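Q: Hi! First time doing this. I have a protein sequence and I read that you can turn it into a structure. Is that right? Here it is:
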Amino acid sequence: MSAAFAADCAAYSAQWQAGAATLAALPARPARSAAEQATAARLLAEGRALRAAFLDAHAAALYRALTGDLTHFLRVRELVDAAALRVPGLVPAAADLAREATHRQADKDGLEIDQGMLLAHFLADPVCGRHLCHAMLLPRAESPALLAQLQRDGQVDLPTARVRRLGNATLVLTRNPRFLNAEDEATLDDFEIAVDLATLDPASSAAVLRGDVVAHPRYAGRHVFSAGINLTHLYHGRISLLWYLRRDLGPVNKIFRGLASPDAAPDEWRGTTAEKPWIAAVDAFAIGGGCQVLLACDYVLAARDAFMTLPARREGIIPGAANLRLPRFTGDRIARQLISYGRRLDCDSPEGRLICDEVVDPAGMDGAIMKVIDGLTNSGAVGLAGNRRALRVGAEPLDTFRAYMAVYAHEQALCHFSPQLIANLERHWRAQERTA
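A: Yes, that's right. Below is the predicted 3D structure, encoded as structure tokens:
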């Protein structure tokens, strides 16, 4: 540790903690006067300017200090928690986050923006960023024991995901029936664990991702792929900023890139990742995050009546890694229309087939899934993994993804707390009328 780094940690920390104490002494945002809100805005802006200066100078040194000079791995949440303890005030403390969590999104001060700034700086550094990507590609701590259960019983049931054997594949069924299989804080851990199990299952050569059956009156008894992010939870302040980064650095990137091991960096040319092809089976619709996941899969099978959207404009957020991946499928113009202008793509349309490999009648989905599994796996697993790596290294090497995620961490933090997000949710989703 350099003397300058140690001295700056102490000096900046004192200023941040003083500002945080003054902010905490103010009334909660909805109860502030105009003058009090102006004071809060000034404190936040001044603290953020100091954080940018500190991180510009010391982000790499801090990351190395937190990870024992890159000798151990910290996931996103562990990393920001460790930073809060190592340099108090750099990112919000647990008590500050707990206080913010009691408010609707519109009534928060946006303290989590500082977490986004921190992670953006870490990801922007090539060495530290690759190390963080490596950490997020490791299997979850819960996965080994559940993998043993899968091997013993042929199935694992998690609260919001089911893992099953299906011929020569492992099937992941995502479940959030009240919200049409939307994604939120309650589903993310189970989704990632299920991706781990399907990828590591030694008894299969492929993985299938499908939404489970829902009970919603309009779709009762039908499979639904995904309604994307739970917008009701987002409006009511129940989606954290870290949720986006944990999702796209974690399970979605694991589907695309495979699982890493602690002793080998996830380099395509070494073949160090454990991976298998992923088949997405799209029933009804793939909205928002659901559509994003399709771009990470190897084969997309869709029901003829299904559709896809990326309603980022109507939500006011960045649609995961879709800005990086979608133009490879549809070209730049259609990608911009989907992301910025709310265009809908029917799966059974010329534009929809740029993403969907095959479209079948809804009643024939089960049989079609089995045919795709057989078609993908009848030549052996080694060639499948090798061809995935060869395709990926030309389209999206890890360093390209790392650089994208640095921008994403910064910009999504600003979007997540922007007044436009709330206005969009109230205008297009009527979120103020919905209960979480």
